[in-house]
């Protein structure tokens, strides 16, 4: 979850990403706020 952003360019269904941040539990869901990320690969549209 990125606070203040509805969309992060490059992060979409099928993208493989690496996240780094602190996990917490929010309403029973594991959540990571404003993680650092690296896009590893993207699934190309066919």
Keywords:
mainly beta, 0% helix, 46 residues, 4 strands, single chain, two-stranded antiparallel sheet, globular
Shape: globular
- The oligomeric state of the chains shown is single chain
Report the count of strand segments: 4
Strand content: 35-45%
> What are the low-pLDDT stretches, counting only 5+ consecutive residues below 50?
none
Largest sheet: 2 strands, antiparallel
Structural class: mainly beta
SSE arrangement, N to C: EEEE
Number of helices: 0
Number of domains: 1
| Helix content class | under 10%
Terminus-to-terminus distance = 28 Å
Describe the fold and architecture.
It is globular, with a radius of gyration of 12 Å. Strands 1-4 form a two-stranded antiparallel sheet. It has a two-stranded antiparallel sheet with strand order 2-3. It has one domain (13-46). It contains no helices and four strands. The model has no long low-confidence stretch (mean pLDDT 87). 0% of the residues lie in helices and 41% in strands. The protein has 46 residues and is mostly beta strands. It has strands at 16-20, 23-26, 29-32, 36-41. A hairpin with a 2-residue loop joins strand 2 (23-26) and strand 3 (29-32).
Task: Give the SSE layout.
Elements: E1 16-20, E2 23-26, E3 29-32, E4 36-41
Q: Outline of this structure?
A:
This protein is an all-beta fold and 46 residues long. It has strands spanning 16-20, 23-26, 29-32, 36-41. It has a two-stranded antiparallel sheet. Strands 2-3 form a two-stranded antiparallel sheet.
């Amino acid at each position: 979850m990125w606070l203040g952003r509805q969309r992060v360019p490059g992060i979409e269904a099928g993208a493989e990403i690496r996240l780094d941040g602190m996990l917490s539990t929010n309403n029973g869901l594991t959540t990571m706020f404003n993680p650092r990320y690296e896009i590893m690969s993207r699934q190309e549209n066919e």
